[in-house]
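Hi team,

As requested, here is the filled-out complex form for the pantoate run. I kept the field names the same as last time so the parser does not choke. Let me know if anything looks off before we queue the next batch.

— J.
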Amino acid sequence: MEVIGLVEKMQQASENLRLSGKALALVPTMGFFHEGHLELMRVAKKHADIVVVSIFVNPTQFGPKEDLNTYPRDLEGDLFKAENVGVDLAFVPAVHDMYPDRFQTTVSVQKATKHLCGLSRPAHFDGVTTVVAKLFNIIKPHIAVFGQKDFQQLVVVTRMVQDLNMDVRIVGVPTVREPDGLAMSSRNSFLNPLERESALCLKKSLDLARNLVARGEFQASILIKGVKEMILSSPFTEIDYVNLCDPVSMENVQKVEGETLLALAVRVGKTRLIDNCLLSAKLLRRI
Ligand code: PAF
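And here is what came back:
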């Protein structure tokens, strides 16, 4: 596996690969790989000749009081794991190369970012779309693979690609979970054993909502109440949001009708975790 640090060198390598007729897939990441990331890489491999993984803890998507400085990092371990699943190229840029001194451009999706995580993390999605747009320009992938755990991110990036006619196909991959149901996340490493146990309430509350819907309960207020009660009955939890929304616009809905996204953000101790599920038919057709 080749490792490239410089933007210019990456652009040249991608250009050469494209000219030689190779199909390129990009898996954008912030590193500290777990099975969820590796699954994205495996899916990418099925879609392309060459898989590029970017590893970049993007400062512009963190708020001033967020965990940029403590975000877990393990570059050596990441490169080892990526190579093992057959990644061809790792792009590991430096912050000053991605954001040089006079940098002043932002890519901003206007509406889908104004809900869910966009409310509690106001500049987050501008940081995500800006860095993803830059990665697309640098790596020029034919496809890019994102996890459905960050469902709103997947929707926002898909919107950006459509609105700006970017020539890249976005592929969403279902959330990978630990055997006990906890959605895999780099931030799970912050949880102590008691918090780790408590964090299971996210998945359990999604299951509760699914069961309620299966029994014919479609009212958002009742489903949300049940989910919140279940989360708050676990120790160390504080709810950021529990929302039922349209899986394309991200706007709240009053009832489960057709495809509806149940999205959660919950602080367990100091760690903010997110999870989601669709309460009806499949989503990606509509994005
Ligand atoms: O999902 C992530 O890890 C990040 O938001 C991404 C897409 C790599 C952009 O920095």
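Two things worth flagging: The longest helix spans residues 124-139. Residues 186-277 form a domain with the Pantoate--beta-alanine Ligase; Chain: A,domain 2 fold (CATH 3.30.1300.10).

Thanks,
J.
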